[in-house]
Design a protein that fits this description.
Radius of gyration: 25 Å
Number of domains: 3
Helix content: 40-55%
CATH architecture of the largest domain: Alpha-Beta Complex
Number of helices: 14
CATH class of the largest domain: Alpha Beta
CATH topology of the largest domain: Conserved hypothetical protein from pyrococcus furiosus pfu- 392566-001, ParB domain
Shape: elongated
Order of helices and strands: HHEEHEEHEHHHHHHHHEEHEEH
Number of strands: 9
Amino acid sequence: MSAERKGRRALGRGLEALLPARPASVDRKVGPQAVFTCAIERIAPRRDQPRRSYDSEALDELAATIVEHGIIQPIVVRRVGDDDYEIIAGERRWRAAQRAGHKEVPVVVKDVTPEKAFEMALVENLQREDLNPMEVAEAYQRLLEDHGSTQTALAQAVGKSRVAVTNSLRLLKLPEKVRALVRSSALSEGHGRALLGATDEATMLAVALKATRGRLSVRRVEQLVRRIRRGKTGEQDSGKDGGHTTAGKSAGVRDLELRLTRRFGAKTTIEHRDPGGTVVVRYADLDELDRIIATLEV
């Protein structure tokens, strides 16, 4: 089995399950499941297309291949009027074809609802890894709010874990200026989640700008956010934490506490009493708890 087919199967039902198989023969009539050549001006992209940005240089490269080889894979559309169609999958090809000077493009028509079309467009983009983290989060939110989906059903549809979907949606809690940094790839999704540990938007933005200017790692951002929070709450990195003293603990236990704290991105203490003991991981809010759970992959 090829890597591509494995990748598609990994995406839950995937586009192949959401999208009926391509007909074996070309049907020249204009109707559901038909494949035909359509004038470019009769086709329009979806207004709620999950993908919002396109790299101009990449489009030029695709246009060059279209000039050389044509469009091999038809654009998937749905009918929205007597003679008009809306793109479900293949907007890059449609845009590149215009740059290549084409007046017509091959299309395959699918008879699906707007809700199903949006879901198909999202899965297609996820399969190609064409969406930035904010576009993914916004598309998930749209499916939840407008299409009445649940996080569990959504996770199954796109082949992700529920925790992965939850973590993606958490990015929508970032201030708009920080979202823009994630959207432009100045910050990664991991940076965005780390910034959510801050207690206010001003701190999030300040740390975000510091991270972009200094090219800070996700771990460094997590540490910076924790240090700022400790300063605001008056918590000190002395020998005490919440009434638990580190005095009397072996160097091995203290080292393990430090490693676990770094691993979880949250203060972790170990109380060892032969033959057992307890491990305490502290979190400030439910968002931080979700992040810790995601780290554990529970």
